[in-house]
Amino acid sequence: MLEEVNFKIVVLDLISGRIDKTSPADVKTIANFSKPLTDYLSSINFKVLVVGHGIGGAAVTYAMEMNPDKIEKAIFVQAVMPKDGETPGLYINGQLATLAAQDVLNYNFNDKGVATSISINTTVAPWYLFNRSPREDKILGMALLTDSPYAILNEVMHLTPGNYGSIKRFYITTYMDRYFPASVQKQIYTNNPPKAKFILKNGDHSPFFSEAPYLFNHLRSLANSQW
C-alpha cells in the first residue's frame, strides 16, 4: 500500500529472522540481532522512518542510539521500547512466562540450562498471533513462523539523550493482541511515553494482516506530518 503512494519501503530481515539462517540460540547481543538495520542505516546518506514490531523494537532502539543522524522518526508497533538502563524484556518477560505455563510457547535451553530462544506452539499460534487476520494471511503467517532469540530480551540497554533521545518516538497499540495484550503494551508506552500513541482497536498481534488499511493510514500520516 505504501509503495502504491510512492513511498520507498525497505524490509530488513534481522539476524535469525528466517531469511538469515543464524540459529536464534546463537544471537547473544542486541548489536548482533540489529546488524542488518544498523548496516543499512550506515550505508545511506539520508534520513528514514524506522518501524519495529514486537521484539524488533529492541533493534529500533539500538539503531536510534547508533545511527541517530539517519532516523527521522521511530515507530513502535506493539513493540518493546526500553529506556536507558532497562532491558527489552522488562515488561514482556512476565507475559512470556505466563504463556509458557499455559503451553503456548516453549523456552529452548542450551547444555548449561540457560534459555536461548523461544518457540511458539504451532497448534495454538493462530489463536494467539492471527486471531483477527484473514485466513490466507494466517496461512502465510504460519509458514513464516520461526523461533525468537531470548538473550537479547535480558540485555541492559545504554541510551543517551543526545542520540536516542534526539529522535521522536511513536507507538501503535493493538487492542485484540492475545500474545502481547493491550495491558502489557500500556505498561511499555506508559513507562516510556512516546510523542504520540495510535490505536488499532481490532488489531491482533499481526496488524499488518488484521488491520492493514488502518496501519497504512497511521504510517502514511506519520511520514507526511510534521510531528
Kindly describe this structure.
There is one protein chain. A four-stranded parallel β-sheet has the order 1-2-6-7, with helices on both faces. The chain contains nine helices and seven strands, in the order H-H-E-H-E-H-E-E-H-H-E-E-H-E-H-H. The chain is α/β, with parallel strands linked by helices. It is globular. It has one domain: Rossmann fold, CATH 3.40.50. Helix content is 33%, strand content 17%. The model has no long low-confidence stretch (mean pLDDT 93). It has helices spanning 30-33, 35-43, 56-66, 93-101, 125-129, 135-144, 182-191, 207-210, 212-224, and strands at residues 48-53, 71-77, 105-109, 115-120, 148-149, 168-174, 196-200. The protein starts with 29 loop residues before the first helix and ends with a helix.
User: How many structural domains can be distinguished in the coordinates?
Assistant: 1
Number of strands: 7
Note the run of SSEs as H and E.
HHEHEHEEHHEEHEHH
- What radius of gyration results from the CA coordinates? 17 Å
Q: Give the oligomeric state.
A: single chain
Strand line-up of the largest beta sheet: 1-2-6-7
CATH uppermost class:
Alpha Beta
Count of DSSP-assigned helices: 9
Summed up, what is this model?
The chain has 227 residues and is of the alpha/beta class.
Notable traits:
single chain, 227 residues, alpha/beta, Rossmann fold, four-stranded parallel β-sheet, 9 helices
List the helices and strands and how they pair.
Elements lengths: L29 H4 L1 H9 L4 E6 L2 H11 L4 E7 L15 H9 L3 E5 L5 E6 L4 H5 L5 H10 L3 E2 L18 E7 L7 H10 L4 E5 L6 H4 L1 H13 L3
Parallel strand pairs: 1-2, 2-6, 6-7
Antiparallel strand pairs: 3-4, 4-5
Helix pairs in contact: 2-3
InterPro entries: AB_hydrolase_fold, MES/HNL
Protein name: AB hydrolase-1 domain-containing protein
Organism: Riccia sorocarpa
